[in-house]
Amino acid sequence: MKILVVGGGGREHAIVRKLSESKRKPEIYVAPGNAGTQQIATNVAIPVMDFEALIDFAKKEKIDLTIIGMDDPLVGGIVDRFEAEGLRVFGPRKNAAILEGSKAFSKDLMKKYDIPTAGYENFNDAKKALKYLDNAKYPIVLKADGLALGKGVLICKDRLEAVSGIEELMTKKSFGDAGNTIVIEEFLEGREVSVLSFVDGSHYALMTSAQDHKRAKDGDEGLNTGGMGTFSPSPFYTEEIDKYCKEHIYQKTVDAMKAEGREFKGIIFYGLMLTNTGVKVLEYNARFGDPETQVVLPRMENDIVDVFEACIDGTLDKIDLKFEDNAAVCVVLASDGYPLEYEKGKKISGLENFESKDDLYCFHAGTKKVGDDIVTNGGRVLGITAKAATLNEARQRAYEATKLVYFDNKYMRNDIGRSIIVND
């Protein structure tokens, strides 16, 4: 079996590693991949948005299944193009990927189908958005409608910050066209939980829960990033909360998309907030999270190829999704300066220390091979993941493992999962 994975980050490395464990023993290609995927698959130098080149490659190499890892190509309609050429592909079509591609759409969908979320208003006119602030309750949240690399959310503590935020998003276009429309919504307090699910159009199968750490600095300070670390499972995602979400969120979302003529096949990522007044949906993503994937997939017991194919074929209800009874923690090693300016091309040493370690993973994100060296090639460079019987133990092992690898300007948060210590 030949499989192509589209993407080049830590998420894609985790997907490729899981694919490599399949009983099908697939021949794996990654476009464009990174220095980590290159060790267990064949990298192909095709950009993720060059749909025609990807299709030509899939035809030429007789690829049996293509996995789309990233949001940009999904929202851009890559699945539709592959299907039009008769190619088998995993991921939502363009009209379903809008669930992530437009925050205004997803908020309106939740409102229409009574799926719990924060109160909000959508604006495509900066003057009207500014006027709305006059009577708003602070703090308040501004969200760019479109894709913004996970960074288009601004939490504003007062009107002054909100005015500045609207100017950033809508006038200065800091995130380009993503800020043509913005969502202004109420600020929710509570604990965030990420829950990923496989979806086949009608059925869903939940993966284990996780929690991301978005802010760049310890204590949840600094700018929003793509994610600085995760742990799984979340001890705060209780059986009671799971039951509520199954009744009021998960199936209702799948059914709502189908009712709108936007049948969803792929991954729905639920970003949840556990508030004093119940669980609310913060956002949807239409693909695996990054770095959530790096703690979820290592704990999954199923052959992932079987699950991907069940989603495509509409037979997910026949799959018994199982996860190990343990825990995982991922600490992201970034280039100092991320998510703003940072240097690339720094030689990475110590990667060989992970080759014979059980339950220890070094997922590559921003890396590339130059000659015999592997060097930094992005803001988030590596994801160090450890599995153990408990979250505390996994956390200790992950942080200990960060010492096994080195590069100039190496930066990490030191408090990933600290909130779980007293609960473990």
Automatic annotation (TrEMBL):
Catalyzed chemical reaction(s): 5-phospho-beta-D-ribosylamine + glycine + ATP = N(1)-(5-phospho-beta-D-ribosyl)glycinamide + ADP + phosphate + H(+)
Swiss-Prot/TrEMBL keywords: ATP-binding, Ligase, Manganese, Metal-binding, Nucleotide-binding, Purine biosynthesis
Pathway(s) of this molecule: Purine metabolism; IMP biosynthesis via de novo pathway; N(1)-(5-phospho-D-ribosyl)glycinamide from 5-phospho-alpha-D-ribose 1-diphosphate: step 2/2
Family matches, as SMART domains: GARS_A, GARS_C
Reported cofactor(s): Mg(2+); Mn(2+)
Molecular-function annotations in GO: ATP binding; metal ion binding; phosphoribosylamine-glycine ligase activity
Pfam families to which the protein is assigned, alphabetical: GARS_A (PF01071), GARS_C (PF02843), GARS_N (PF02844)
Family annotation (NCBIfam families): purD
Record family assignment: Belongs to the GARS family.
HAMAP family membership: GARS
Protein name per the record: Phosphoribosylamine--glycine ligase
